[in-house]
Design brief:
With 196 residues, the chain is mainly alpha-helical. It has 2 domains: 56 residues, Single alpha-helices involved in coiled-coils or other helix-helix interfaces; 137 residues, AhpD-like (Up-down Bundle), CATH 1.20.1290. The chain is built from 9 helices and 2 strands; from the N terminus they run ααααααβαααβ. It has a two-stranded antiparallel sheet. The N and C termini lie far apart (37 Å).
Amino acid sequence: MVNYTFHQADIAPEGARATLGSIAKELGFIPNLYAGMANVPALLQSYLELSSAFEKSSLSPVERQVVLLTVSVRNSCEFCVAAHSWIARKMLHMPDDIINDLRAGHLPAEYRLAALSAFTQAVVDKHGWVRQHPAFIQFLAEGFRQEQALEVVLGVTQKILSNYTNHLLDTPINKEFSAEAWSREHVGQDKGRTMV
């Protein structure tokens, strides 16, 4: 059985120590995803660079979280769903109904966010082959620009990297995220607008 190390800043591989130290200083803790990625410093650095690039996109902070939560639910990443639910609630103060719909695998009631979530799921499910997909047409009809579809691809790429890494690491959820614990059994349990 493989057991990965979840590093603290002072014992991490040389290439990850400063990065983990900065994260701990900024957040007050090190998310276990980062602690696990530190086994391969290039992986941690690549993920943080993708995250930074996505934050610079023209999508709003709420729209970015819709993308990240949608991908994480679709990929059944328990760590990322908990972490992004925490970010959405505690840092962005997103409405509970939007977060809860996404966590349940449903589309939000708000049309623009529903179109964004549906398009994001289509990108994941169809591996990017969505040029003629109804979800892409609806995404554009809700006022998103074609360039923003590529920004969604960037967000999907960021989350696939973390989702797949968490699956391999079997990342434990930080106590800071424990109130947002989630499992794939939650998907589709509540009535609502199901994702495409």
